[in-house]
TrEMBL record:
GO terms for molecular function: deUFMylase activity. This is UFSP1/2/DUB catalytic domain-containing protein. Pfam families: Peptidase_C78. It comes from the Eukaryota. Residues 50-240 form the UFSP1/2/DUB catalytic domain. The keyword ATP-binding does not apply. The keyword Transmembrane does not apply. InterPro entries: Papain-like_cys_pep_sf (IPR038765), UFSP1/2_DUB_cat (IPR012462). It comes from Anabas testudineus (Climbing perch).
Length: 249
């Protein structure tokens, strides 16, 4: 089994000798951007309510460990970002040395749990919010709340925004969002509401390339405030919300 370590500073990841399959390791150690949203301006000048993630996390994205997962790995990368938050903030002493699982570890865990057949290991099959809830509970004993949001502006503006607001105020952990027509996994780090509508703070795992500083990630839009109305109004969405309030810091 590959090894990985999150350093106390929250940035060094050592993926060990077998971090990616097929020898596709570009470097054994990657430096991932930490808390990439810090420094972003509020999307609304006169916001009525803004609720954000609390604590540090690492930005996982396509190929960040040397494994080229473009086109299928966005759900896995969002899970890794969520797991990094658990490692650095809310994980129990029992799991404090449990680093974010690698893609092969995530697949094997789903097979071990009986959610996927043996052929799933080593495949390029997508995973979504339901699998994310299983994986985070498996590795960190953190249950997740799953919320289904039907398509349409009213559901997104009212139900999703309120669920996210309550989540960030109570738990402060990153959320995974995915849907059917809009099947691109994304991390949600905050929600902001005002007279001109609501915005979600989105961290997008689809970036592929060399490691970037947080200012460059922000400039390129890989972490950014996006208006709720910019989401696909004909897609349903699911939210995976780690329930961490009872886990002491």
């Amino acid at each position: 089994m590959e090894t990985a370590v999150v350093a106390a500073g929250g940035e060094e990841i050592d993926w060990g000798e077998s971090a990616a399959e097929g020898g596709k390791i570009t470097e054994k150690v990657k430096t991932l951007a930490s808390s990439s949203h810090i420094g972003l301006s509020n999307p609304l000048r006169d916001a009525v309510n803004c609720s954000l993630i609390r604590g540090d996390y690492l930005y996982f994205h396509y190929g960040c460990d040397g494994q080229d997962d473009r086109g299928w790995g966005c759900g896995y990368r969002t899970i890794q970002t969520m797991a990094s938050w658990l490692c650095l903030n809310r994980v129990s002493p029992k799991h404090q040395n449990r680093p974010p699982p690698s893609l092969p570890e995530i697949q094997q865990a789903l097979v071990t749990m009986g959610d996927k057949p043996g052929s799933f290991s080593g495949s390029r099959e997508w995973i979504g919010t339901f699998e994310a809830s299983l994986v985070l509970d498996y590795f960190y004993d953190v249950p997740c709340k799953l919320v289904h949001i039907r398509g349409g502006g009213a559901e997104l503006e009212q139900v999703a925004v309120e669920e996210l607001r309550q989540h960030f105020e109570r738990h402060g952990s990153p959320v995974m969002m995915g849907g059917d027509r809009d099947n691109s996994s994304k991390g949600i780090l905050g929600v902001c509401t005002g007279d001109k509508g609501s915005y979600l703070l989105i961290i997008d795992p689809h970036y592929y390339g060399c490691q970037l500083e947080k200012t460059e990630l922000q400039r390129r839009g890989w972490v950014a405030w996006k208006k709720v109305t910019s989401l696909d109004q004909s897609s349903f969405y699911n939210l995976c919300m780690p329930q961490t309030a009872k886990n002491p810091v």
